[in-house]
Amino acid sequence: MSLRKLPEAKTFQRPQNFQWDAPSDVLAKWAETPLAADKSDDSTITMFEVIGEDWWTGGGVTAKRVSAALRSIGDKDVTVKINSPGGDMFEGIAIYNLLRAHKAKVTVEVLGWAASAASIIAMAGDEIRMGLGTFMMVHNAWGVVIGNRHDMREAADLFDGFDSAIVDIYEARTGMKRADVEKLMDAETFMGPSEAVEKGFADVVDDGIEQPEGDAKNMDRGLMARRQTEAALARAGFTRDKRSELLTEMGVSAAPRDASRKPAARDAGIDVTAIRQLINAMKS
Length: 284
Known about the structure:
By secondary structure, this protein is α/β, with parallel strands linked by helices. It is built from ten helices and nine strands. It has helices at residues 24-31, 63-73, 89-100, 117-122, 149-174, 178-186, 193-199, 221-235, 240-249, 272-283; strands at residues 18-19, 44-47, 78-84, 106-115, 127-130, 135-138, 144-145, 189-191, 204-205. Strands 2, 3, 4, 5, 6, 8 and 9 form a seven-stranded mixed sheet that branches. A two-stranded antiparallel ribbon has the order 1-7. Helix 5 crosses helix 6 (178-186). The longest helix is centred in the middle third of the chain and has 26 residues, at 149-174.
């Protein structure tokens, strides 16, 4: 970093059978907003999607894409605009490290949500600016690991390490006491701009920053509907992979996903049980 001496975040090997997710409440609110078209200049990186690969669009904010953007920008000041519900912690830490190592100034602007993994990325900013009505959200590491009791015990130890690494980042950037940061994460804390500045998670409340609302006439209504449906399933407790399977069985199309996705049900027709599960989830 050019202005702040922030620690390099500890990286981890991704556990076998690990499934990442975004906080369901934030995902639901974020999914209701049309995404704006990218009209940024060549020194701006926009993060208006989930952190990690987005299986609806084939997009998403990944370390690979951010690395390519930084190479293109070169040793110039960079602005990072964030409106993301979070997602993959591993990608978030990797992106934080990339921005932290950038040789010029990094300005982070929060235009909507900087939640979960997106809040980790935001901490890499030399200057963090939040618009009115925006939120920063921090919590303990989330994810699903499938296996037996031994796998579960091992996973709990791994998640202790994940949380410790995240606390390191927040503690260094904010100057808060470690125990106080841990309390915020345990409580799954939402912070508006003023509170974020007060606690050191941001530097400036900027009323000139506006949330990037898309044109309702031209937005992809199908994409919004799919995301809103997935958000309802997430709030009902369905894991990311289970949501994918349910929606795929009902004929909802998505972009190609990683090898963990099970394609066998795609040609099986409409699953009545899956539809009932969806209806019950949306009623709850």
